[in-house]
């Protein structure tokens, strides 16, 4: 199995066994970014929206009352099942679920008015292919909204953040910097319209539990974070309680771009 296929298999394994955790995770189910997502477009009620890598279905749940139809896709069968149950319990009947790879979408060109991908792209093995596919399936003047955890611009901080995420979740590929996203999106042909930054507070125990990290690995990760240089601990606001990491702070970014 080549590296790209192995990465996809890792994502399916991790999200398959932890699918239910992503529906109930407060980091994923809540957030100012979801409110911004609703407000950032003047929804008419006639839009067909593609929710790429839907995960727990929170984007679909947020937008279903505002649009004509949401097509929610994900690579992992198990997570599609729990997100479908979540949406059905909330009474949404205009959401279609499909198994699909964000990097090889099975839709015709110019199929959607908007495409949204939230807190997922750091798992993709070929981010450029994902951006290219989002561009392809959007109609002219369609809106692309990318929401994801982003790494700091400083190389040292970028390395630390991606390292601890990889230690917690082996299916993590890389959280890009804001500058990398902007460059990639503009190079594809999108026109950048808006960018927002959202601080994210992670509570260490819950953060580890979401991926069912074994205790020995959790303790080793906590020790590594507490032994980080002082400038890193300040940057990520790492707090300690009883000799263990209690919390830290990172960020997510929301980028709105238009297909020209």
UniProtKB/TrEMBL annotation:
<keyword id="KW-0808">Transferase</keyword>
<dbReference type="InterPro" id="IPR013216">
    <property type="entry name" value="Methyltransf_11"/>
</dbReference>
<dbReference type="Pfam" id="PF08241">
    <property type="entry name" value="Methyltransf_11"/>
</dbReference>
<keyword id="KW-0489">Methyltransferase</keyword>
<dbReference type="GO" id="GO:0008168">
    <property type="term" value="F:methyltransferase activity"/>
</dbReference>
<dbReference type="InterPro" id="IPR029063">
    <property type="entry name" value="SAM-dependent_MTases_sf"/>
</dbReference>
<dbReference type="GO" id="GO:0032259">
    <property type="term" value="P:methylation"/>
</dbReference>
<feature type="domain" description="Methyltransferase type 11">
    <location>
        <begin position="50"/>
        <end position="146"/>
    </location>
</feature>
<protein>
    <submittedName>
        <fullName>Methyltransferase domain-containing protein</fullName>
    </submittedName>
</protein>
